[in-house]
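Subject: complex prediction, re-run

Hi both,

The earlier run crashed halfway through, so I resubmitted it with identical inputs.
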Amino acid sequence: VAALVDAAVQTWASLPARAPRVHCLTNTVAQPLTANLLLAAGARVSLATHAAEVADMVRTADALLINLGTLDAERVAAVPVALDAVAGHRTPVVLDPVFVEFSALRRDLAQRVQSREGVLIRGNAREMAALRSGCEGRHTWVTTGAIDRVERPGQPVITVSNGHPLMGAVTAVGCATTALIAALCALTDDHGVAALAGLLAACIAAERAAARADGPGDFAMRWIDAVARLDGATIQAHARVALIPD
Amino acid sequence: VAALVDAAVQTWASLPARAPRVHCLTNTVAQPLTANLLLAAGARVSLATHAAEVADMVRTADALLINLGTLDAERVAAVPVALDAVAGHRTPVVLDPVFVEFSALRRDLAQRVQSREGVLIRGNAREMAALRSGCEGRHTWVTTGAIDRVERPGQPVITVSNGHPLMGAVTAVGCATTALIAALCALTDDHGVAALAGLLAACIAAERAAARADGPGDFAMRWIDAVARLDGATIQAHARVALIPD
Amino acid sequence: VAALVDAAVQTWASLPARAPRVHCLTNTVAQPLTANLLLAAGARVSLATHAAEVADMVRTADALLINLGTLDAERVAAVPVALDAVAGHRTPVVLDPVFVEFSALRRDLAQRVQSREGVLIRGNAREMAALRSGCEGRHTWVTTGAIDRVERPGQPVITVSNGHPLMGAVTAVGCATTALIAALCALTDDHGVAALAGLLAACIAAERAAARADGPGDFAMRWIDAVARLDGATIQAHARVALIPD
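This time it finished cleanly. Structure:
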């Protein structure tokens, strides 16, 4: 565990210097918080979906986030274009299967993303249950809840017990956290380490924000502030991480 | 009046336990505040507009909100699909006719919504004037301003004198309030009581938020915080409600 | 310089009484902050993009903002419609060429806007470099950065040294500032004065907001609050403006 946390802390600390750009095909509700979280962490963001420019912007991005919330026809069309743009490239691809259990449209898009090797998928327990079906071994599965779980092919499950209930009381906190994980995936080939770094940063910042927040209204901005000033030593000191044999 | 306020307070108090899901066909500017207000009040939210999934999501929702702000072709197309999905069902339908006085597109969509029986319509005085034309008696009309008015078929007009001018100085506060009323309509067949509960909650929370706010910038988050901690006793103690014979 | 600052202060002070409406064809990420900044300054905002209503809303607006961020097909189509709606009218047109260096789609749209006489263009150094090509003399160019520059046809360059690094750490602050400049362009024919007024208001408010902010999370709301209470005397007292011969 200590080595994993060390690696996560180092990845987090290297983010501002590397300043990866995450291309986010994400829902309109989550766009402002997602952009501000990435900027606060030292990453960069682009959000274009138009057919005439999405391929170029994805090809030059350091990571690709695909979020299935509030789909419109243009974003639906952009998903395969974006996947084609990174085909044959090592660009990390991260999927947030928002409400995938509700619609065939989202399931089909999720399957399209999952047909790529080595995707990282972050969702809640219901969303993850709707997606799993025999291809678990090829991807990294990050299931968030009271205790977060990171499952990597053939390795022990990582659990993170940090966080705060206010994270579930504010829209887009989960979506933004997935984008942060995508930024970290650009810095290390080990998706488990990237997921751990993103979860620890988001959850420990949430604990600090919640301690000062009046409620869900001011929580989000305090969370961004806490991420902006979160250093590796703070993560080291507060991380509650365990390993469960596979 | 006392019985009405009692009923409104009870409806408000039952919201977290019932956790109704409001499907919001609403404008992109209002989406974040609307989602966060609903979550703060204990309701749930879905926002899909895509033709392939909107009918399913509306059919399983507890209330339907239709907001005419910043229309795009996809949301325009979603409105009749959503109305068809609730045809023959008792799902409450709530209309927010943003800027309806400005465009024939919005007037036509509003008329389509108004052709359903028993819709609740929430707008400002200009928007309401643009909509009324002989069908007043079938719907519940909620006109917000310095004094809010709730007009129900054949019953005395309810007025609410709570609130604060900052509510009109921040984008989407009115839109989000309409969504809150939609959530409450899922809990009682009496749209007047639901409207009263939503107006009292939004306006009394606004009074408390404004007392602490520096201005329009921090008002919205303080409003969300105040809604999250608003209990029935506080509403009872602060409600300024009157009845005007029809 | 003193006369320029005086004119800018007077323009700023007249904003609430005139309450110009800016029609903003702007990206979804920037919409909430843009709307709230305009409201805080005393202006009004409309955001429609649908083909059936955009021309009417633009024709009756006091200024037109065209922002190239997160384009979708509907907004791409709305740009020429909006430009046609103001052809032959004196409605000020302001362009924010977000990420124009990244895509041909954005360059083409920008050129379409630039074919109008006397547009005000506000961008960062990279965006401006991608746009300039022989037609500098016809437009007002506002390049923002550590020091902002306002370049008007045949006149000395105005520089503004106010501002704070947090302005670049939060999404949509630049986009919203451009919208504020558009509102001020509705109040004076001198685009240089309007740009100066908008830059001074945005930058001096940012200095005051940053002095109280914990980080990028709460900066945006404190910035809105600071704009809402910014008076002419404060701008006069804090303005750091210089002229550079052309």
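Chain B is about 50% helix and 15% strand.

- K.
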